[in-house]
Amino acid sequence: MKKTSSLATFSLIALGLLVPCAHAALTDGMKEGKPELKSMSQLTFGPEGILFVADTKAASIVAIATGDTRPSTSTAAIRALAINQTIAALVGSKAEDIIIEDLAVNPVSRQAYIAVSRGRGPDAVALLVRIKADGQPELVSLDKIKFSRVALPDAPADGSVGEGKRARNPRNESITDIAFADGRVLVAGISNEEFSSTLRAIPFPFSTVEKGTVVENYHGAHGKFETRAPVRTFVPYKVGGESHLLAAYTCTPLVQFALKDLTPGAKITGKTIAEFGNGNRPLDIIVYQKDGKDFLLMSNSSRGVIKVAAEQITGAASITAKVADLAGLKFEKLDWAGITQLDRLDGKFAVVVRTGASKMLDLETLALP
Amino acid sequence: MSPAAGRSVSLVFSAALTLTAFASLVSGATISWLPAERPVAVEVDHVASAPTHDSAGLAWAHTLAVFAEQGSTLNVPAMAGTWRMTSGGRLRFELPYPVTRGVRYRAEYRVAGAVPIISYFALPADTTPPSTTVLHVFPSADVLPENQLKFYVQFSAPMSRGRTYEHVHIRAAAGRVIELPFLELEEELWDPTMTRLTLLIDPGRIKRGVKPLVDMGPVFETGKAYSLTIGDACRDAEDRPLRANFEKKFQVGPADRIGPDPAAWKIVAPSVGGRTPLVVAFGESLDHALATRMIRVVQADGTELDGDVSLGPREETWGFMPDRPWRAGTHRLVVSTTIEDLAGNNVGKAFDVDVFEDVQRHIHMPTIEVGFFVK
Question: Which of A242, B85, B101, B243 would you label with B231, given CA atoms 20 to 30 Å apart?
C-alpha cells in the first residue's frame, strides 16, 4: 500500500543505475511451494519484488517473491474500469461478492497488485490479482512460488484456551496496515477482544517475531487522553535523518513515533503533530517528492484526500491541549473524490481505486499534486 | 460479445431445467455442465479439431471459454481455470471455484469454420426462508456504564462481511440514530467462524470530561436510555437476511474508571472430593470474552485444571466445573491483568489514563494470583 523503498533508491532504479539482482540474498532463504493464504488483508512491497501479505485469518505475514523484478521503463498510466466487475468475471463471481482489500504497486516494475476476497463469508477465498497493461485483471498464480512466513505472537493460538471442548477460540487479530522500512516489516493490529493497539517490527528475512509494542497517543480533538486506539494507516518517514513512523488514527490525529522506540513489550507514547478533523477515518498515506520537497498524501473516508508539506514535520509542535477540530500541520484538500485505495505509481503519479459514476470501482492513474 | 450472430443454435436452460443441462448440438459436439446440479467442470465431446497438446491452456482457452456474465456492456474477461483433454477425448474446463448463486455462466465452444456452440448454467434462485438470528448480545446487563467500550453480537450462523455497519445502530430515545458510534474497520471484527461480531465504541466518542465533546458529542450519557439494533437486512453467509430485526435496550449509568481488582473478588471455594463448581463473584460485570478466557485455576503443584467455564447473569460471576473431583489443598486463581471490565479498564489501569504520567509505572505483571483453599 505504500512505498517502502526510499525515494532515492527508486530514482536510481528508474534511471537504470541500480538493477535489482534476480537472485538476491533476501529471497535466498525462502522455500518454494504454495503458501496457504487464508486471507489477504494488507499488501506492501519490499525490495526485490518481494510482496508482504498480511494474512489476518492466519495471524501471519507472508513474504512472496513475485519474481516481478524487471525495472519498468514505461511512463504509461494504468487504467482499469469496474475492477470489481472484471475481477468477478475472471473468478466466476458477481461484483457484489468481490471485496478489494488493498492495492500495492511494485515500485520496480510499476505493476499494480490487488488483494481480493472472493466472497464475504467464512469460506471466502483470498486472491492476488495483477492489472495488465490493457486494464484487464489476471490472477497471480501462487502455486509454485518462493515465500516465507512468520506468525504473529500473542495472536489467536492463545495458551489459555485448551484442547477438546474448550478448543474453539473466537479471538482474532486484525491487521490494519503493514509497511517495510529499515529491513523490518511493520505491522499495526487490533484484537477483536482485548482493546489495545500494537505495532510490531519484524526483522526480514524472518526469523522470530517479537512481542509487539503497545502504542498510545494524545488526541487533541477529544480534549482528554486517548489510549490504545488502533493505528489505521501509517507510513515510514525519516525525520531529522532518523526513521520514524507517521501513524494516522480515527478522527484524525497524525502521530509520530521513532522506529527505534519500537522495542519488544515496550509501551510508547507518540507525538501528535496534527489533527486533521473529526468524524473521519484515514485510509492510506503515501510519501512523494515534488520540486525537491517531500509531501504526504493521505486519503480519508469523509475528508477526501489531503496533501501535507512534509517540511513542517521537523520541529512540529506536540499537540497536548484540547483543540476544536484542526490543529498542527497545515494541509491542502484535493478534489479527488471517492478514493478508497491509494498508492504511488512512480515519482509523478499515484494509482487509486475510486468509486466511479456507475458505482463500480475504477483503478486510475492521477498526477501527484 | 455480439449476441445474435453466434447464437443461432443456442439454447438457454432455465434454472429448473438444468438437471440434464445439455446444450446445443452442432457438428456432433455437445457442451455439458458436470455435475448438472452444481457443476465443477464444463466438457465438450466430439471435439473436432482441438489442439492435441497445450500445456499453457492458451489454445484450449480460445476453443472453450466460460464466462460469468456481469449484466453489463463492459468487456469482461473469460473465467480463469484449467483445461485438459480427458482420456475419453473430451475437452474439459475445470472451474476453479464453486459456482455462485445469482450468476449466469456461459460456455462458448468455437472452432474455425463452424458455428459456435453456446450453453448456459445458473443455480436456481434461493427460496430458503431466512433462518439466521441474533442469539445473544454481550454485555447482557441492562444498565451499562457511560464509557461502555464493546459489544459482542453472537449470530446463530456464519455471516457475511463488508456491509455490517450499515445495519447495526445505536439509537437514543425515540429511535434517533446516533451518528458513527463505532470504530469502523473495513474488514470488521469477526471471529474465525464469522458468527460473532465485535463492535467497538469509537474511543474518541467516549465521554471523559464534564462537558460533552466539542465535535459530535459522546455516544452515551448517564441517565439516558438507548438500544443496540441489528436490522434484518444484515446478510448471512448464504446472502439471506436475518429472520427478524433485533434490539437490545439498556440504560446508561455513571462512567466506570476503576479497573477490576481480583483481590476483592469473592471466591466460594468448593469442597474436596466433589465436582461442585468454584464460583467467583467480581462485584461488577466484566467483558464476556476476556472473563471467559483469562482466568485459570492452578493447583499447588502448578498444574492447571481442566474444566468448563461459565459466566453468570450480567457476567458478574465466573463458574468453573473441574473435569475431575477437587483435591484438598491450596489452589490459585491466575488472572491475566489484561482482563477488562465493560469500560475496557484493566487490572491496575483505567482505560483512559494521563499519558503524561510516568507510563512505566503502569507496567505490571502479566498475571495476578488469588489463592483459595479446598478442604
Answer: B101
